[in-house]
Specification:
Elements (H helix, E strand, L loop, with lengths): L39 E6 L7 E5 L2 E5 L12 E2 L5 E5 L2 E5 L2 E5 L2 E13 L6 E10 L6 H5 L3 H12 L16 H24 L8 H6 L1 H4 L2 E4 L6 H12 L4 H11 E4 L10 E3 H7 L1 H21 L4 H7 L2 E2 L5 E3 H7 L4 E3 L2 H11 L1 H6 L4 E3 L6 H7 L2 H11 L20 H26 L8 E6 L8 H17 L8 E6 L7 H18 L8 E6 L4 H7 L5 E4 L11 H7 L3 E4 L5 H8 L5 E2 L4 H10 L3 H7 L1 H12 L11 H9 L5 H19 L2 H13 L6 H13 L29
Parallel strand pairs: 1-9, 10-11, 11-15, 15-16, 17-18, 17-20, 18-19, 20-21, 21-22
Antiparallel strand pairs: 2-3, 4-8, 5-8, 6-7, 8-9, 12-14, 13-14
Helix pairs in contact: 6-7, 6-9, 8-9, 16-27, 17-18, 17-24, 17-26, 23-24
Length: 740
């Protein structure tokens, strides 16, 4: 879950004060009680190299390092006084006094703090990121035997932990460095949390047991996917081995502290760490995980005697050629709440992915639909539309996006319709000039801007979009005089460096674009652009200019999506399947105000049951056959006719995401899109209905739901005055009356 860093929503005081931990893949908002020293409210790694810069060379993706810190970062402040040790490797010694993790290799975690201001609320929170540093005595043994050079070189082994971000977030690779990164961030952050807790008035008594009794009331840790799952055994290690709490007491506190957000149903993305790797790197944590699992399975066995299949399905340890730890199971067992990030996703999590766990503890499972911040994704990137909306309904919608429903009364206002269309056209002209400058392709700004920007992945089905482009191209070539609604198809996104098929998809799109854009018969009717290095700053340009937003994942595969929400808020219409947050967008706006097509989740399930046969669709649909044959024959790759054989072979024999099954419905739905686009007034009225229905998809609403339903905190009515204004007496008190 990716929540805005400027949510515009603050807590001055708490019914229960809470602390949240996210991992580097997501950003989490948090607040502090007025009587405490401000806490860092985001946790992550300070990567020296972020997600790679994508270059397109001869149609291929090439990755270049993103050395984003090469000129320094003026916003961050190093905090060496709070540097903390993180341990790896070693062995475990058991004695009458308990377990001891010894002979470890130490890496230091150096915190960097970045201020994160809220939106006009006189509040600045802190993002704390950790950088890995080798201790001065690292590999001192090598110094002692005279191998000075090797000892210095070995420091890199420690500091590599924060060197580079792994970009594969939809495919799990069990790399030792990745596990080191995951443990590094949770170990540092948990030490920081406990240090602050003990220094607070809540942790100042003499009785350890009394101190930690209140821990879940003051601390909330949200596990953002399974990446920070090692926080569960790490907190247990701290409580049991260091603080000497009894196991049952420690486990109760741990469960009440953690909650888990699931972000994917794709099995290849769920983390399953090899037991032997965990044993080597974190031997004490493996012992704790085994103990958690044994107690968990004993409980299951008591409820379901002799149900061996259930025990196997629910175990934290998966048997097989390689024993693995199922990190999602660890998160569920060790948390008091589990949520998906869209209504349909949360239902799939309960009914399919974690069915046994949901049957055991149905009250634990919730939904928290993702949201986006209107400050960045409307005010900042689309000021013309933001100002137009403010003129009609006032400026309060910026903090309360649900007020957009007031726009419904302007759906039939001819002046407002023209103004909305004018803003869109101005954004399109601006973006067309950008494309002409950057890509040397002249774009017709009156053409429909059909945009598909997101990570390149088979389940997001950029291939189906590509087949539609080829179909449109063939139709124009077949009858150049026939009316054709001009389109500019814009596709962008990065492929994970090791994802062969995603890279082939990028190459295919660029190869098709090369043919289409240079065919004089086609002219300005159809243009295809692949956006290089798609990123937030580029999204801020393309999203306000978009007419049609492509959200075409196979039903049941997209957890939520947030791009769909950004397009909706900026006046684009959606063509999409009933997947992820599309379902709720259709509920809010009315399904008739989106272009919905294709299989629903139950249809996909039924097709899986019967068996998907791509050949049947290929044989039955002439336009599909023609497009596939062109790819297969080398029409788009004359220098290497076999270039796309892997793509064609996948579509026929290994396509888990059933592109051919939805192709016909997709093409017919696109014909409806073109028909409506010819009627500018009707199109813009549908746009206004979508904008008016976008209020639900604010991150402010999402954060409030997490706070209310999972962290159990409520906002205060107290307002924080500007620094130059004096505080009222009541504003200097926390709810329990202590001085701020």
């Amino acid at each position: 879950m990716r929540l805005s860093t400027s949510s515009g929503w603050t807590w001055k005081s708490w019914r229960k004060s809470r602390r949240m931990l996210g991992w580097a893949t997501g950003v989490w908002a948090g607040w502090q009680p007025a009587s405490w020293t401000p806490w860092p409210h985001w946790g992550g790694i300070r990567y020296e190299y972020g997600i790679f810069n994508q270059k397109i060379r001869d149609g291929w993706q090439v990755e270049e390092a993103d050395d984003w810190l090469r000129h320094g970062n003026p916003w961050e402040k190093a905090r060496p006084e709070y540097m903390l040790p993180v341990h790896f490797y070693g062995r475990v010694e058991h004695s009458a006094s308990g377990a001891k993790w010894i002979d470890t290799q130490v890496v230091l975690a150096l915190p960097y703090d970045t201020p994160v201001p809220g939106y006009m609320n006189n509040t600045v929170n802190t993002m704390r990121l950790w950088s890995a540093r080798a201790p001065n005595d690292f590999n001192l043994r090598d110094f002692n035997v005279g191998d000075y050079i090797q000892a210095v070189l070995d420091r890199n082994l420690a500091e590599n932990i924060s060197r580079v971000l792994y970009p594969n977030d939809n495919f799990f690779e069990g790399k030792e460095l990745r596990l080191k990164q995951e443990y590094f961030v949770v170990a540092a952050t948990l030490q920081d949390i406990i240090r602050r807790f003990k220094a607070s008035k809540f942790g100042s008594t003499d009785s350890v047991r009394t101190v930690f009794d209140s821990f879940p009331d003051q601390v909330a840790i949200q596990l953002n996917d399974t990446h920070p799952a090692m926080a569960i055994p790490e907190l247990m290690r701290i409580f049991v081995d260091i603080e000497k709490l009894p196991w049952d007491k420690a486990w109760d506190i741990t469960k009440r502290t953690f909650a888990y957000t699931n972000h994917t149903v794709l099995p290849e993305a769920l983390e399953r760490w090899p037991v032997d790797l965990v044993e080597k790197l974190l031997p004490r944590h493996l012992q704790i995980i085994y103990e958690i699992n044994q107690r968990h399975l004993d409980h299951i066995a008591s409820l379901f005697p002799n149900d061996v299949g259930r025990l196997r399905r629910m175990s934290l340890i998966e048997e097989g050629d390689t024993k693995r730890i199922n990190m999602a199971h660890l998160c569920i067992v060790g948390s008091h709440a589990v949520n998906g990030v869209a209504k349909i996703h949360s239902e799939i999590v309960k009914s399919q992915v974690f069915e046994d766990f949901a049957e055991l503890e149905p009250e634990k499972f919730q939904n928290k639909t993702n949201g986006i911040t209107p400050r960045r994704w409307l005010l900042l990137c689309n000021p013309g539309l933001a100002e137009l909306i403010a003129e009609k309904i006032g400026e309060d919608y910026v903090r309360d996006l649900s007020q957009l429903t007031k726009l419904h009364k302007f759906v039939d206002d001819d002046l407002f319709i023209r103004e909305v269309a004018k803003v869109k056209q101005e954004n399109k002209v601006k973006f067309a000039l950008y494309l002409e400058k950057e890509y040397k392709v002249k774009i017709n700004p009156s053409s429909m801007f059909d945009v598909h920007v997101k990570r390149i992945h088979e389940y997001k089905r950029q291939l189906m979009n590509c087949l539609h482009i080829i179909t449109m191209y063939n139709r124009i070539r077949r009858d150049p005089a026939k009316l054709f609604v001009p389109r500019t198809v814009i596709i962008g996104g990065k492929a994970a460096p090791g994802y062969h098929m995603a890279k082939m998809i990028i190459k295919l799109i660029n190869a098709v674009a090369q043919v289409v854009n240079n065919d004089p018969v086609v002219g300005s009717k159809l243009k295809v652009i692949f956006l290089e290095n798609y990123r937030v700053s580029l999204a801020e340009k393309v999203i306000p200019a978009t007419d049609l937003s492509e959200q075409i994942s196979t039903a049941g595969t997209e957890a939520s999506g947030t791009g769909n929400m950004k397009f909706m808020l900026n006046g684009a219409l959606t063509i999409g399947t009933m997947d992820g947050a599309n379902v709720e967008m259709a509920e809010e706006a009315g399904e008739e105000n989106l272009f919905i097509f294709g299989m629903r989740v139950e249809d996909v399930t039924e097709l899986d049951r019967k068996g998907y046969n791509a050949q049947l669709y290929y044989d039955r649909l002439p336009e599909l056959k023609q497009a596939v044959d062109q790819i297969k024959s080398g029409f788009f790759s004359p220098d290497d006719p076999n270039l796309f054989n892997d793509v064609v072979n996948m579509l026929f024999h290994h396509d888990r995401f059933k592109v051919f099954a939805d192709y016909e419905a997709y093409v017919k739905c696109q014909e409806k899109v073109s028909e409506l686009y010819l009627n500018s007034k009707a199109w813009t009225k549908m746009v206004i209905r979508n904008i008016a229905a976008a209020g639900k998809f604010s991150s402010d609403r999402t954060i409030k739901e997490y706070a209310r339903d999972i962290w159990h905190v409520e906002p205060s009515d107290l307002k924080i005055p500007p620094p130059n204004e004096p505080r009222d007496a009541g504003q200097d008190k926390t709810p329990n009356g202590t001085a701020a």
